[in-house]
Amino acid sequence: MAEYNYEDYNSSYESSREEHQHFLQFKKVFLPCTYLVVFICGLVGNSLVLVISIFYHRLQSLTDVFLVNLPLADLVFVCTLPFWAYAGIREWVFGKAMCKTLLGIYTINFYTSMLILTCITVDRFTAVVKPTKAYNQQAKRMTWGKVTSLLIWVISLLVSLPQIIYGDVFDLDKLICGYHNEEISTVVLATQMTLGFFLPLLAMIVCYSVIIKTLLHARGFQKHRSLKIIFLVMAVFLVTQTPFNLVKLIRSTQWEYDAMTSFQYAIVVTEAIAYLRACLNPVLYAFVSLKFRKNFWKLVKDIGCLSSLGVSHQWKSSEDNSKTCSASHNVEATIMFQL
């Protein structure tokens, strides 16, 4: 994993050997189990979002463009987790080339996911605060969205080069995939904190503050639902990402904490919480949408999973009702509904 570096495996000098051994056993079980859970849930959720976005939404809006790139990044990200899970249980047995490749893939998709989240936030800001302009310039925004998505993948590749170049396999009681370079570690941490935490956080605070103010003055039945979704998105981001980034920041400024077993527990647990975003993103950014849920039931029906117990009829009635309701709303209400 990206956090598998040389310093992580220095023995604790302040803690007893027995306490440190307990921590190593805990880490050996807890992280691989967490990786596998995130892998399974993230694989299913992001695959569904990707299939529905491509074959049913057919990239009809800027939101659809981002909802292809976000699950794609998260999907590739979770596919690296089984390798790290095995390495946590045993050791790194996949060789130096695979080490560099997986470090690169892991990091590229981490940055891509976070930057796409930032773009989704800005897109929602434009759709709610300037709905008429967003609607009239939909084709132009689609073009810019595709260009922006391509640039994000390129930027993510560029900022991931240090991990790819300096990634290596080290023999520290067991074979470990990571990188051991103090200057590179500092650069990597600064980049991860800036692009992977502070930039999305700043975008959410600024954009969602204005969106909330706009919704509070708006008329429409979707207002309260939209506010709940906004608060949920903010809460999930803060709860999953803040602890791990805070712990990494503390470790970078106070290296003596790295010798404390209790602090090592904090790193492991907060890392596991941070990776839950790959499971929660599909729910937060796709399944809350009525349009997505409708297309999900279409997918279920198309692959023959609906039984003859009236589910198909219920889905059809719901679809007809939603179409009737949609037709009666103006542009602003429709765009606000995308929240």
TrEMBL record:
CDD domains: 7tmA_CXCR6. Coiled coil: none annotated. It holds the Pfam family 7tm_1. Residues 45-285 form the G-protein coupled receptors family 1 profile domain. It is a multi-pass membrane protein. Keywords: Cell membrane, Disulfide bond, G-protein coupled receptor, Glycoprotein, Membrane, Receptor, Transducer, Transmembrane, Transmembrane helix. It is found in: Cell membrane. The keyword Transmembrane applies. The chain crosses the membrane at residues 29-56, 68-89, 101-122, 143-165, 195-215, 227-244, 264-288. The keyword Glycoprotein applies. Belongs to the G-protein coupled receptor 1 family. Receptor for the C-X-C chemokine CXCL16. Used as a coreceptor by SIVs and by strains of HIV-2 and m-tropic HIV-1. This is C-X-C chemokine receptor type 6. The gene is CXCR6.
